[in-house]
Amino acid sequence: MMKKIISLFISIVLCICSMFALCSCGLLETNSDAAKENLEKLIDCLDKNDHSGVKALFASNKIADIQNFDEDVSALLNLYKGSFVSHNFDMPGATFDDVDNNVKKKWFIIGADITTSQEKYHAIMYWCDMDTSDKGNVGIWSLFIFNVKDNPLKDYSFYGDSDWDDDNRKGIYIVKPYKYIDMTMNILQSGSVENVKTLFAPKVINDNTAFDENVENFFSYYSAEYTACTEIATDTDIQTDADGNMTKRFRMFSYSIDTADGKYSIAVRYCDKDTENSENVGLHSVYIRQGENSADHPYWGDGLWSEGISVDLAH
User: Fold this and answer.
1) What is the C-alpha separation between 89 and 70, in angstroms, rounded?
2) Per-residue b/e over 56-70, b at no fewer than 16 CB within 10 Å?
3) What does the pLDDT look like over 265-287, one tens digit per residue?
4) Strand pairing of 226-240 and 171-174?
5) 288-309 residue pLDDT tens
6) Cα(136)–Cα(161) distance, rounded to whole angstroms?
């Protein structure tokens, strides 16, 4: 799991450098003291139910155009229950700096579990700690937070949602982590072909004349209800145009699913961005078979990513 987290962390580093278009972006040593200080500013405001205090922690330039931001702050305060007990870093203040034409900028990525007398939360923040060119950029840019009991992947932490690297994602996001697999499993086990169709890309459904039959075969094969899942492996396929701009992105996930009837392995391929054809956005492939999934040999179905739902296919 540590290798997975390190790999994900490196990906985040690269994406942030790209997202901010830094001219000289360097990963400095972890700054736990400064990160802790910033984190505790937020916790103090949450503990005091301080609406104006929470709002003041956000970068004014980044929240200026967010509609209903005050309502988002209220929702955050409503989420936070109990009195602060403790916190521990999951990502202790990774620091990025940028120096260009004597302008100095610095960002933190801060990830932490926050325990109160009633609940436990996981939060990740993208926090600008310095910008000598514009103080309006200083403060929290993005805050993702959820109650730990809402995480279906019990032994994995959370680093934002699938669109965290979209430059428009600024503000407060109260999320349900790993929404794709959680949403997918709940709808797949609904027993409704029409519900399942809402998951898939319209083009996949239109091109697959046997789609309804695929779904019915799945219902016959899998009738359990999942209780928890573990992420085994992930992959991403990005397609670009001649100028290097992303035109399409596929995300692939392999999971181990726990049910009352035993373990299942599932692999999904999901298109979450297509700038040329929105009909491609949605699930493209689901593979499922009974048996345990293993990090040593992740389940990817037959590896062909046939569109639709495929059951009981070996590795």
Assistant:
1) 27
2) ebbbebbbeeeeebe
3) 999 998 988 999 999 998 999 99
4) unpaired
5) 999 989 888 999 999 899 999 9
6) 25
